[in-house]
Design brief:
Protein name: Ubiquinone biosynthesis accessory factor UbiT
Number of domains: 1
Structural class: alpha+beta
Number of helices: 6
Oligomer: single chain
CATH architecture: 2-Layer Sandwich
Radius of gyration: 15 Å
Family: Belongs to the UbiT family.
Largest sheet: 5 strands, mixed
Function: Required for O(2)-independent ubiquinone (coenzyme Q) biosynthesis. Likely functions as an accessory factor.
Pfam family, one: SCP2
CATH class: Alpha Beta
Keywords: Ubiquinone biosynthesis
Strand order of the largest sheet: 3-2-1-4-5
Length: 150
């Protein structure tokens, strides 16, 4: 574990769930408002959890009326949970890898509603990525070295 991962893990443990969700939800909502990320109707009313395994980060959010919102923060299972390491998420964001590649390399796992998982997969693979977003994700990926034996 790198120093960055260790610090992120410690900080995450002490933040309440709404604060952990805020950066992701604000980013998703900003991209939606900019017209870069329009959630399909199948996401409406559904709950999601993104887990970044290597830094112990778990973020819960939902989609309502085409908007991304934090929560719910109860103990119920979300409709769909994605598990991956930070590097895999960054590769997905940058367009350097797609969901199928990460899934079959066992770097992305999906739990929950299978039909919803496929809808999210098609949506993520087809979503346009602004050039600056891919460049930023590639730079951030440098902070997360490839796991040994990968």
């Amino acid at each position: 574990m790198t120093i960055l991962q260790s610090v992120a893990t410690r900080v995450h443990r002490h933040l309440p769930a709404p604060l952990r969700a805020a950066p992701l939800v604000v980013a998703l909502e900003a991209m939606r408002r900019a017209g870069w990320l329009a959630p399909p109707a199948a996401l409406d009313g559904r709950t999601f959890s993104l887990t970044v395994d290597d830094i112990g980060l778990a973020v819960r959010f939902h989609c309502a009326n085409g908007r991304f919102l934090p929560g719910p923060f109860d103990d119920r299972e979300t409709d769909l949970t994605l598990h991956a390491g930070a590097l895999s998420y960054l590769r997905l964001i940058s367009g350097d890898a797609d969901t199928d590649t990460l899934f079959f390399q066992r770097r992305l796992s999906i739990r929950g509603d299978t039909a919803l998982g496929l809808e999210v997969k098609y949506w993520l693979d087809a979503a346009p990525r602004p050039e600056w977003l891919g460049a930023m994700a590639q730079r951030l990926a440098l902070l997360f070295p490839e796991p040994r034996g990968a």
